[in-house]
Amino acid sequence: MASEQDSVWKEILDAYFQEFIAFFFPHIHKDIDWAKNYEFLDKELEKMEPDNEVGRKVVDKLVKVFLLSGREKWVLIHIEVQGYPDADFEERMFIYYYRIFDKYHTKVVSLAILTDVNKKYRPKAYQAEEWGCELKFKFPTIKLIDYNSKWAELEADPNPFALVVMAHLQAQKFKKPNERLSWKLNLIRMLYQRGYERQQVIELFRFIDWLIRLPTQLEPEFRQELEKLQEEKAMPYVTSIERLAKEEGRQEGRQEGRQEGRQSLVLRQLKRSIGAVSPELEAQIDQLSFEQLEELGEALLDFKDDTALRTWLVSQ
């Protein structure tokens, strides 16, 4: 079952694909004939998934677009949104590239959006060479944390993806509940002030609401402020019922699934970087929270042996 994270990113890319390209890749946007319909080929992409893929992607998309030219010409744009450092990412990008090309025999453009917080993790090319046979596959990447230094530009940009980036950055930056509440309300005010249509507000609200989670005790205050804002703007777009009708059992099940998936990923990454992990260390890793597992997933890129892992675990 697709994770909640997959779902919200897929929804936002489906709803705002043109805006996504305009925001992150304006040089590509100007070459596409947006008067012609573009086509999502996600089901076809699923069939090409690498057999040896390790871990979970956040989301991947395959889109057929037409270019502005004298004759009809189309290319495939392959997009990966990657949410954690992964040593196999560059190879996976290349595998998708050649499988897409092999199927369609047309130009393929691979693009990567990196949503993690590791400043050193910047994959951009897959290379292989042996006995004079050499391959180099380069792909454009966008690192969302780089937009931290462009906040004024984000606030001034009417593109919906500017708001998506702001929400993502604030979710990473602020961990204290009251700070998260304040920034969540600020972002939603921006959402209402930008003059978006009702459906746009609902789609972007869902993304912000999922990304910036609040503890249960702050939900009543958030709902009250949200209702005030909607009354001020005369825009009752998001009701309490729409956002609070959740099945607790399903939510708990998704959380358990995310926890198990993250543990499995971290153990596989550790085995590639330092070799076999002892049962003792595995038991300690099993006790880590989801947030600690995410931190370990970034820290292990610098581990040389299990001593580094032991030291990290002791510090928790």
* Helix run count: 15
Strand content: 5-15%
The helix-strand sequence is HHHEHEEHEEEEHHHHHHHHHH
Number of domains: 3
Structural class computed from helices and strand pairing: alpha/beta
Strand order of the largest sheet: 1-2-3-4-7
Give the biggest beta sheet: 5 strands, mixed
Distance between the termini: 31 Å
Unreliably modeled segments? 244-254
Helical residue percent band: 40-55%
Give the number of DSSP strands.
Answer: 7
Mean pLDDT: 82
Tell the overall outline.
flat
Write the layout of secondary structure elements.
Layout: H1 4-15, H2 17-24, H3 26-29, E1 39-40, H4 42-47, E2 59-66, E3 74-82, H5 89-104, E4 108-114, E5 125-130, E6 133-138, E7 141-143, H6 151-156, H7 160-173, H8 177-193, H9 198-211, H10 219-233, H11 240-244, H12 248-274, H13 279-286, H14 290-299, H15 306-314
Parallel strand pairs: 3-4, 4-7
Antiparallel strand pairs: 1-2, 2-3, 5-6
Helix pairs in contact: 1-9, 7-8, 7-9, 8-9, 8-10, 12-14
Overview of the structural elements:
With 316 residues, this protein is α/β, with parallel strands linked by helices. The protein folds into 3 domains: 4-139, no CATH class; 147-240; 271-316, no CATH class. The protein has helices spanning 4-15, 17-24, 26-29, 42-47, 89-104, 151-156, 160-173, 177-193, 198-211, 219-233, 240-244, 248-274, 279-286, 290-299, 306-314, and strands at residues 39-40, 59-66, 74-82, 108-114, 125-130, 133-138, 141-143. The strands form 2 sheets. The protein has a 5-stranded mixed β-sheet. Strands 5-6 form a two-stranded antiparallel sheet. Strand 2 and strand 3 (74-82) form a beta hairpin. Helix 7 (160-173) runs antiparallel to helix 8 (177-193), helix 7 (160-173) packs parallel to helix 9 and helix 8 (177-193) runs parallel beside helix 10. The relative contact order is 0.09.
